[in-house]
Amino acid sequence: MRLRTRFNVALGSVFALGFILSILVTYAVVLQNAKDELLRNASLMMETALAVRNYTIEEIKPHLDPMLEATFLPQTVPAYSAIETFARLQKKYPDFSYREATLNPTNPRDRSTDWESRIIDDFRSGKDGEVIGERESASGPSLYIARPIRITNPACLACHSTPAAAPASLLAKYGEDNGFGWKLDEIVGAQIIVIPTDLAQRNAMHAFWSFTAILGALFMLLFVIINLMLTRLVVTPIKRIADLSDEISKGNLDLAEFEEGGADEIRHLQASFNRMRRSIEKAIKVVQLQKDLLKKS
Q1: Torsion, CA 84, CA 87, CA 88, CA 92, rounded to 10
Q2: Burial of 136 per CB tally in 10 Å (0-12, 13-18, 19+)
Q3: What is the domain count for the chain?
């Protein structure tokens, strides 16, 4: 096998291994970055919903509470404000959703679905903090963040403890069958943000394939450059030495000596070959001189 072929096989193997490892690492990093971006967006939406809830409690509810005896105003309910605000956002981002899913809600639209109920049951069983997961939704693969809804404000029980304690306007709108029996410090539901992962994954894969193409092009360019350098600095000088050695072995001593240059190792090889050639020429002259003397004698 020729030197260039051996070198290319070895270099190609190293490049292939490096390329495969690079794209595997890049693939994992790109997907993780996409997931992290989704989580940041979901957390931002969750905090926005919490901000709307707090604004409703602090700024809206005190002004509307005196009117509840005559007419129930859902705008006084923090969950209603957060859900309605997010509904405006959904007009632009229809695949995004925000729910305040509840096991026993006053408003039937807030009743938890099966998968939401399982999350709420986990919270009620002792799971604390924030839950992050993935699921298949109507729009495809989605990422969700869930936080428990815990009754920490005794004022909430005015509408949710017993029908007798609730405003008459609330009973007139929703009836007495739902949304009662809540207790202080009880987890009654969960705030759930759902974000589709399809767009983020498509963007991530686009970035991944772009990086793969650029990396492949760089590897090919480097492979060509190294081959050109190998040809100029190693293969060509060695081939010239090999060709000259072949000519000398056939008795052709009229060829010019090498001009010593290039890398140190090649220059040393050229100098050694030139010395060997001069030694051969001297040896041949000595032998020829001895033959001439023997003929004269």
Answers
A1: 170
A2: exposed
A3: 2
Dihedral (CA of 73, 74, 78, 81) sign: negative
**Burial of residue 286, with CB atoms counted within 10 A of its CB: 0-12 exposed, 13-18 middle, 19 or more buried:** exposed
What pLDDT, in 10s, does the model give residues 135-166? 887 778 888 999 999 888 787 777 888 888 88
| Same domain for 158 and 47 | yes
Q: Does 188 share its domain with 53?
A: yes
For residue 136, give both structure tokens: 């298949």
Domain span at 115: 11-196
pLDDT digits (tens, 9 = 90+) for 20-73: 999 999 999 998 888 888 888 888 888 888 898 888 888 888 888 777 777 888
**Whether the Cβ atoms of residue 128 and residue 145 lie closer than 8 Å to each other:** no
Counting DSSP H helices and E strands in the chain, the numbers are 9, 4
User: Do 179 and 43 have their domain in common?
Assistant: yes
